[in-house]
Design the sequence.
């Protein structure tokens, strides 16, 4: 800008010289020329000061705008709305048609392989802390499609120090032991654990903490209408999961209740191992050693459950599953329901939400009539999730 003013000054200077060339020899003309040059210099200085003031004002306004943008980009410490809300609605329908040979009688029957529907909502009410509600109810296709048998009904709060839940829910015994061998499309799977194992427990308080690959689980049941005045059940467990491998050990102490009377306690130690290989092969085994501690009237006894499950993916849509099981309730010949057996299943899954299966199951009882069945089954899964 200053160079422009100098050019104007020079041009004006030459113009004045030209216009006054005739009178250049006179003193008055020279004096007038000096005054004009001084006036032009003062105008140039005034213009430069005004230009500098404008540039300083623009820089100040730009700096203020930048500060405002930075302040707007920084989130508040406590947002007005929840950080993360999720809602899930789901259902699975699992009818089966089977041919049964049971108690020396053969027959056809439509049954249900644990159809159910549920709703689950979670809310991250502050960073790292979530609240959860979960309700799930069975749908019995084999009996009029009845709806309403509760499977899960609890509220949980989780954070950096673990998760606590209260209500009807899965116990550690199932989550760490039975779940890994429960791979078959059957209401009575796992076939040995099912005889006396626990799947859902009401009136229960659970705690879970995950550190690295380890899962620490603890649960107690408090049912004031039955059992002892304190905890009716105590279930502790430790699991480890890493790169497709699972290993766990659990301890369970539960009141034995017959009618309204407590007849003793059941003490169970259990272990489970499972490995999911990259080539499509899956192997799992679960074992429970059970001690039936009874009062003076009943006799103490001991038994066990053993379930071995394996699956192999033949192709992207087909899998074959095999299982072996052995159950011993420790009773004498007249009362014992001891059995072992096996099952095999061919599963076709043409879509992520749809699968079909063909299964053969055989139970060989030591003192009762044997059991075997052929069944075909359908399974359709539906789920819808929302985030807001």
Sequence:
């Amino acid at each position: 800008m200053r160079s422009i003013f100098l050019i104007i000054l020079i041009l004006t200077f030459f113009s004045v010289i030209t216009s006054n060339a005739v009178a250049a020899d006179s003193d008055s003309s020279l004096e007038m020329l000096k005054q004009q040059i001084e006036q032009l210099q003062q105008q140039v200085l005034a213009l430069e000061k005004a230009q500098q003031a404008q540039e300083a004002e623009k820089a100040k306004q730009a700096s203020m705008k930048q500060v405002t943008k930075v302040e707007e980009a920084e989130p508040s410490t406590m947002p007005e709305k929840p950080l993360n809300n999720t809602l899930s609605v789901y259902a699975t329908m699992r009818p089966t048609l089977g041919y049964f040979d049971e108690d020396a009688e053969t027959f056809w029957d439509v049954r249900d392989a644990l159809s159910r529907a549920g709703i689950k909502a979670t809310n991250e009410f502050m960073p790292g802390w979530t609240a959860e509600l979960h309700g799930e109810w069975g749908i019995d296709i084999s009996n009029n499609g009845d709806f309403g048998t509760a499977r899960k009904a609890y509220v949980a709060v989780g954070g950096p120090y673990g998760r606590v839940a209260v209500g009807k829910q899965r116990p550690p015994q199932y989550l760490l032991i039975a779940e890994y061998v429960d791979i078959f499309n059957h209401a009575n799977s796992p076939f040995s654990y099912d005889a006396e194992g626990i799947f859902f427990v009401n009136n229960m308080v659970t705690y879970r903490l995950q550190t690295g690959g380890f899962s620490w689980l603890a649960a107690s049941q408090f049912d004031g209408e039955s059992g002892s005045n304190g905890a009716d059940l105590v279930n502790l467990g430790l699991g480890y999961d890493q790169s497709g491998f699972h290993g766990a050990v659990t301890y369970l102490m539960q009141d034995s209740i017959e009618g309204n009377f407590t007849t003793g306690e059941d003490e169970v130690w259990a272990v489970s191992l499972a490995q999911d290989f990259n080539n499509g092969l899956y192997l799992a085994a679960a074992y429970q050693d059970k001690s039936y501690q009874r009062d003076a009237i009943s006799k103490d006894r001991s038994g066990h459950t053993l379930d071995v499950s394996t699956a192999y993916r033949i192709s992207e849509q087909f899998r074959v599953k095999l299982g072996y099981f052995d159950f011993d309730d420790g009773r004498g010949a007249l009362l014992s329901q001891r059995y072992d057996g096996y099952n095999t299943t061919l599963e076709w899954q043409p879509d992520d939400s749809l699968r079909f299966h063909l299964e053969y199951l055989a139970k060989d009882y030591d003192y009762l009539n044997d059991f075997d069945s052929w069944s075909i089954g359908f399974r359709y899964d539906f789920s819808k999730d929302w985030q807001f």
